[in-house]
Structure formats: C-alpha cells, structure tokens
Design goal:
Layout (H helix, E strand, L loop, with lengths): L3 H21 L11 H6 L11 H8 L10 H14 L3 H29 L5 H6 L3 H10 L5 H5 L4 H23 L3 H20 L8 H11 L9 H21 L2 H4 L9 H20 L23 H23 L1 H13 L21 H18 L4 H23 L2 H11 L4 H18 L2 H17 L4 H14 L5 H12 L7 H13 L7 H12 L7 H17 L4 H14 L4 H13 L3 H14 L1 H4 L3 H4 L5
Helix pairs in contact: 1-5, 1-7, 1-18, 5-7, 5-9, 7-17, 9-10, 9-11, 11-12, 11-16, 14-15, 15-16, 16-17, 17-18, 19-20, 20-21, 20-22, 21-22, 22-23, 22-24, 23-25, 24-25, 24-26, 25-26, 26-27, 27-28, 28-29
C-alpha cells in the first residue's frame, strides 16, 4: 500500500502536469512556421518509412542547423513523421511532453537541493517545502517559454536542456547518495560528461552544463560538503577548452557567419546589453501583449560613437553582473539566480554570429530569474505577515492567464503573425511574413481584399528597408497572378536589392522564383531583367559561405538551361555546385537528369554510382525516375 507521503508526491506531480498542460493546450492546434520548413517539412531525409540502420543514419546526418547537425533532435523529428506523418499537432505534443518532463526534473532537483544541501533551518525547510513546486510551476507556465514549446523546431533547444537537467540531477544525487568521495566524484563527472555529449548532439548550448554544475556546487552546496577546488576548475576548463579549440582551429566557424549579417561582432556584443535587459523585463513583467516573437527592431550602434542608450544598458548589465558576484559570499542563492542567467547566455548572447535576439534563448537562463522572482514573492508576503503561498497562488494564476492567451495566438499561424505585426509594427520580418501570408491567401482564394492587404504590408516593408528583395518579389508575384504589368521601378528596385551587400540569403531562391514565373507560369517578365538579375546575383556572393555559392550556381544552371538553352554551360554550373556541396542529394539528382537529357548516359551512370554510394537509402528505386529524358 502507498503511504500518505507517496500519495502526496503523486498528487503534486499530477498538479504540475495538469496546470502546464492546461496552459499550453491551445498552442497544439497551430501549424508549422518559418524554420520548421527547411529543417523538417522540406527535408527529404525526414520522410522515413523504415527504421533500419541505413535509414536512421541518413536521417541523423541530415541536419542543417549546424556543423554537428544536431542528430538527436533530427532523429526525434523523423520518428514523429514515422508514427504520425507531418501532423503538426503531434510534433507540438512531443514538445509539450518534453517541456513537462523538464518541469518535473526542475521540481525534483530543486527539492533535493532544498532538502539536503541548502542551509535552511528545520522550521524553514517545513515552511518552504513547496518552494520547489512553486519554482517548477512558475517556470513551466511562464509565457516567455511558449515559443520554445509551440515552435516545433525549438525542440532542439528543449531537448538539450532536458539532457542538461538530467546531468545536473545525476550530479546532485551522486553528491548526496555516495559516501565514498572518490566514487561520488567519479559518478558525478561521468554523468556530467554523458549528458553534456547527449545535449550537444541536440543543440550546442549543452556545452555549458559543466559551468552550470560549477554554480550549483559553489553556491547551493555548503562549503564543508563541496568538492575540491581543483575539480571545479576542471569543470570550468572543459567547455572553455573545447570552445577555444574550435575557435583556434576553425575561426571561420565564428567569423564567417557575419558575412550574412547587417551587423558585425562589435555591434552584436554592444546590443546584447540591451537585449539582456529586455529579456529580464520580459521575465519579471511577462505580459502576453508585450512579449514579441520577432526581435529585429534593435537599432544598430555606431561603435566609434556609442549613444547614451547603449552605454546605459551596458552599465545596467555590468552592475547586475557585479551585484551577482558580490552576493556570492553573503547571499549565495541570489548570486546563483543572477549568474545562472548570465552563464546561460554565454553562447547565444555574445560573439557567435546568430540573430540579435530570440525569446527562446531564455529557456534555461530564465530559471535563475524565475527563482529570484519566487524568492521575492515569498519575501514580500512575509514582510506583509501573510502566508506566502497565497502570493504564490496568485502569481501562478497570473502567469497561467498570460501563457494561455499567448498560446491562443500560437494556435493559428496567421493569427500569430498578424498579432506580432501589430505588436512590432517596425519589425521587418513580421511585415514580410504577414505580406507572404496575405499573398498565399490571395493565391488560394482570389479574394481581392488579401491582395490589397498584401500590397499595404509590402509598402510597410519597403518603408522599413528599401533593399528588401522579398518585398519586390512578392509585388512581382501578385502582378503575375493577375497578369498585371509590373512597373520598371519595381524591377529596378529588385535589382538594387540583389546588389546590396551583404546579400539576403534567400536571393538565389527569389531569382529562381522569377525563372518559374516566366517559364512555368507564363508571366512575361522581360528577359533582359532576368539576365541582369542572374548576373548581379552571381557577382554578389557571400565570401566563405559555400552553401550560398552553390545555391547561386544551381540557379544560374537552371537559367542557362531554360532561358539561354545553353545545356553545356548549365551542366558545368551544376558540376561546380556539386563540387562545393557534395553531400546534397538534390544537386546529384539535378546533374544526373541534365546528363540524361543531353544523352550523356555514361556520365550519368558515373554520377548515379556516386549518388548511390552516398545515399543508399534514398537512391533505392530512383534509377528509372532519374534516367527518364527530362531535366
């Protein structure tokens, strides 16, 4: 029979699961979005029909998000497809399950630390016994985490955090359970290494796990029980050395990404002070109508002449960091809250050339601030001589309402992007995505109101950035649907946008869309305009970005084949693209079809053998299809 204590624990777990599930339930109705398409929907490797070794190996090595490829995350997407197809409900449901597991892990770890390590008196331990549940609930239903759960591709992030939490929990349990210090350290370190590796194979952020463990060991475990300083030094050195090796051996891993950006490393680093301050505001005052998915409205600083605004934000972050360090001796739990936030942002909010900001980056670092918030609620209600559980209940209710309304927006992709464009009228991305959705609605319904709305949004886009090739391509597309002539000023604007440096990463795709409009859809685009577009695109590559250069060559190859009817030159371009990106199955198939179409069967056979060796699963049964005489 179960005792009352066991029943109480089960009820607490059920309460945690039930409240989090209720908050996120509306978001399960939503569809796929943005980066879900290249990473999941458009990946041919994702469509697995068997789970044999070759299929799973091809799937695991098909990731696009980094050089590592994040195979654990990619395999989880493939398994989703295997069991449920591309039904977004089940992809989001798996994300929600992982998030619930993470909340439970946080609850268990906080309970173990509070009960066994942290310096509460016996009376305080009784009084604060629900603090771990309060923390896990606040984090589990905090609205800043909605995009981490409802945006399918962010499974990479929450999976990495799951392995980090498992590693930290194993570490804490090993420190608690094993009396033999040497054995205890060995088990703890082994768990840390294993979970760090599994986490990194989900997303690279998990390399920070040793640093997180240093914070737990140094600030939450009493000094008399703490591991020797030399062990902690090793934990700090592990991620530091690994990251340093990557930077030294392949500096372009960090530097080359800036060729894709409108900002440089110094500008990004300065802006992160404002970004981190905004994150803190969203964590402490989480109003759903203020939280934004698109965060591309930060003005770029002039490094040689920093504004008072930039300096002010840098001072805020410097003071908060200093305060966290000062609190280490007298208020270690407060120090832990602040340092967890800053350490958790070390990769994505420093020099790595990622986008400036995304709220999902707070999924792990936010735990520190939410813990500080929970302690603040307790402190306030104690000062008011009231039961802090009342305040906790009210705050959890507030978060539940905010998250529920945020999830309602995520229940429909159109509603989400429309809401985001209203919340961030100066967001270029929000306006482009809303214009794209209106354009798609017009294509599907032929309702003129959507055409008018799309054109209005495109006007906003050009007002925000006159070099946006997306705006011009959608205007041309809308005209092609109606058979309306496009004004020369639009063609000239598109050509200027192609010449802009750094070029937009989607420029090859947009030039390819022009070729499709002219030769597949029959819209009479001027051939002189097409030739100029291809020429400008080809002469404005991004240095050191091989994948982008190969895309340019593939589009140029199609132009030479379809427009110029120069088959030999087209094949040369296709070969060059394949030489740059030899692991692209699409490029292999494209070249084989071209060679077959010009009756170079022997050369096609040679290419097919290479294709078959590289992609044994995908090439199975493809021979007849590829060797039809159609390019």
């Amino acid at each position: 029979m179960f005792g009352s204590h066991e029943i109480s624990k089960v009820l607490l777990y059920l309460l945690l699961i039930g409240i989090i599930t209720m908050a996120y339930l509306p978001s399960l109705k939503g569809g796929f979005l943005l980066d879900d398409y290249p990473n999941i929907i458009n990946s041919s490797a994702m469509k697995i029909e068997t789970m044999d070794y070759e299929t799973m190996h091809t799937l695991a090595t098909s990731g696009l998000s980094s050089r590592i490829g994040r195979p654990i995350s990619v395999v989880s997407f493939g398994l989703n497809y295997y069991f449920t197809g591309f039904d977004p409900f089940y992809f989001k449901l798996v994300n929600l399950i992982i998030h619930v597991i993470n909340s439970i892990l946080l609850f268990i770890m906080a309970s173990v630390i509070q009960k066994n390590f942290f310096a509460f008196t016996s009376q305080e331990k009784t009084e604060y016994r629900y603090l771990p549940l309060f923390l896990a609930l606040m984090w589990g239903i905090h609205p800043i985490n909605v995009s981490s759960v409802a945006y399918v591709v962010q499974r990479m992030n929450i999976l990495a955090v799951m392995f980090m939490m498992v590693g930290a929990l194993f570490y804490v349990l090993a420190r608690l359970k094993i009396s033999n210090r040497l054995v205890g350290q060995g088990v703890a370190i082994l768990a840390m290494f294993a979970c760090t590796a599994l986490g990194v194979l989900s997303k690279e952020n998990a390399i920070l796990l040793p640093l997180i463990i240093v914070l737990i060991e140094s600030l939450l475990i009493p000094q008399q029980d703490s591991i020797a300083d030399n062990s902690l030094t090793v934990f700090v050195l592990i991620p530091t050395v690994l990251v340093s090796i990557v930077v030294i051996l392949q500096p372009e891993y960090v530097t080359k990404g800036y060729f894709l950006r409108e900002f440089d490393a110094a500008q990004r680093l300065v802006l992160q002070a404002e970004v981190l301050t905004d994150y803190l505001q969203d964590l402490v005052f989480p109003l759903h109508n203020k939280l934004t998915f698109y965060k591309d409205t930060y003005p770029l600083p002039i490094i040689a002449q920093l504004s008072a605004r930039n300096i002010g934000y840098m001072l805020v972050i410097a003071l908060l960091t200093l305060g966290s360090l000062i609190a280490v001796k007298k208020r270690p739990i407060i120090a832990f809250c602040g340092l967890l936030f800053f350490v958790g942002h070390l990769l994505e909010s420093t020099l790595i050339p990622l986008e400036i900001a995304f709220e999902h980056r707070n999924y792990l670092p936010g735990i520190g601030i939410i813990l500080a918030l929970a302690l603040f609620v307790i402190w306030v209600f104690e000062k008011l001589r009231m039961n802090w559980k009342i305040g906790g209940f009210l705050f959890v209710g507030f978060l539940l309402i905010q998250t529920y309304f945020q999830c309602l927006n995520w229940s429909n992709s159109f509603l989400l992007i429309e809401a985001e464009a209203q919340k961030s009228p100066d967001s270029l991305r929000a306006n482009i995505d809303l214009a794209r959705m209106y354009t798609e609605l017009y294509i599907n319904t032929k309702d003129k109101q959507y055409r008018d709305k799309a054109l209005r949004q495109l006007g906003n886009v050009l007002h925000l950035n006159h070099s946006s090739s997306a705006a011009y391509i959608y205007i041309i597309l809308l005209n092609s649907i109606d058979g309306t002539p496009t004004k020369n000023v639009i063609y000239e604007g598109f050509l200027r946008s192609l010449a802009h440096f750094p070029p937009e990463q989607k420029n090859p795709k947009r030039v390819n869309e022009l070729i499709t409009m002219r030769f597949d859809n029959g819209y009479m685009l001027p051939l002189e305009f097409l030739e100029k577009a291809v020429d400008i695109m080809s002469n404005n590559p991004i240095p050191h970005i091989d994948g982008y250069h190969s895309e340019i060559l593939v589009v140029k190859s199609r132009y030479l084949w379809v427009v110029k009817n120069d088959k030999e030159a087209a094949i040369v371009c296709a070969r060059e693209a394949l030489k740059i990106s030899p692991n692209s199955s699409t490029y292999h198939e494209n070249l084989i079809r071209m060679l077959v179409a010009v009756n170079k069967i022997e050369e096609a056979q040679v290419e097919y053998e290479k294709y078959e060796a590289l992609f044994p699963v995908k090439s199975a049964g493809k021979y007849d299809e590829l060797f039809q005489r159609k390019p």
